[in-house]
Amino acid sequence: MKVSIEQADYHAALATSVVIFGFDGESLNVLTATKENPPFEGASILPSAIVSPHRDVHETATSLLKKVTGVDHWYLEQLNAFAKLYRNPDGRVVNIAFYGTVKLDDKLLTQLKRKGYSWVPSNEVPPLAYDHDEILEFAKERLKRRVKRRPIGFSLLPKEFTLKDLQTLYECALGKSFDKRNFRRKIIGTEILIELDKKTKPTSDHKKPAQLYKFDEDKYQKMTLKGYPFVF
Amino acid sequence: MKVSIEQADYHAALATSVVIFGFDGESLNVLTATKENPPFEGASILPSAIVSPHRDVHETATSLLKKVTGVDHWYLEQLNAFAKLYRNPDGRVVNIAFYGTVKLDDKLLTQLKRKGYSWVPSNEVPPLAYDHDEILEFAKERLKRRVKRRPIGFSLLPKEFTLKDLQTLYECALGKSFDKRNFRRKIIGTEILIELDKKTKPTSDHKKPAQLYKFDEDKYQKMTLKGYPFVF
DNA sequence: TCAAAAGTGTTAATCCTACACCCATGC
DNA sequence: GCATGGGTGTAGGATTAACACTTTTGA
To answer: Quick check: pTM over 0.85?
Structure first.
């Protein structure tokens, strides 16, 4: 059993990939990229970067996202390390992958188009190069698990939203649908929402105005830390 | 943004550490090691190994455990990668950590003593070198979460055990105590146990014989895959 | 006969699920 | 006035939590 580290042991490259889930009010999307050089030129992949010597992995992922989206403050959680020996044809590359969430607004959508990245509905992502399919699956499972135990939404919904929006989000993330009344009762029961003095403006397609809510930040934080049994 | 990998990017060493939980019928223990060379000579650490070029990380962890314990078939689950830039004074070493569980029998206890490794009650582990305290905390949280959603015990208890044993295990893992009747009803309700035609032999310290059970392997597997809401 | 741990049921409160109709608005 | 989605309550069943006494054995 090896006890000390030799020069020859510094042999691995580090990469990081990010699975970013973005909600647009209708569906959950995932940020994908296109590989622009060999190997796998032209293939879809997850946004990824090589971690340079003396750079932090997490910081590398954040700054990749800054460059791609223009957005700066990302909450990223480590998913796992993907370290199978021959996962990368270039050599031994260990991928430390993260996942995160974002509210999809027009700014985000536009900037991405300019740079060749794109948002794809999370259940229509094409096959990805390397082992990125596996990373994506891992992230989807993680998101599901998270949704069941901790509040989600702060990072996926706009500041003000309707209960319908929130329900749609949960339905997308968990892949099933809920009874409207039960859902509302349960969410209201958590006291995580604050009812605003506003309603949505009725739009052209015949709608009754809907009550707007925002999150109660304090309670949201507490629930994020402690978890709560929001199992559907 | 870097797009292809250069030689200089193969700069990191890979290490792996394992957090092994072992149950001895009374308490949950963790396998610890002693660092026998600088840096941190003499310090307690988690069992760890350097991953050589062309060796798989998981396989490295398994064979480390084989060497330490003599036991071969380990279920190890990846915890996370620990990759902070300066976590190791030797250089850039990324640690891909695993956790696993084992039934502590006499064989295991004896063999370890011979090799300087030892089992320490999980809430009495001394401060560890590197960032191994952090890894250990991470593992304890993971174990808790797992216990709440999936059956545990196959890998921590002997083939035949009493409901008391199982309850003690859950109490150790979750750090709280349960009502005996409610616990039994819930466990029996899962139908994961098979009642044997045996009872424990009363021992010297005045005990009534207790019913022995074993796991129903099929149901156990199904529950391991699907999860179940065993939230206490 | 006593000490020590095994084993056993009930009740009240809570939570979950299923279910159907009226309302406010723009067109 | 009609089409669209917003909004509301209840009842039955299931699950949980709290609670104390009797039994079997070795010493």
So the answer is: yes
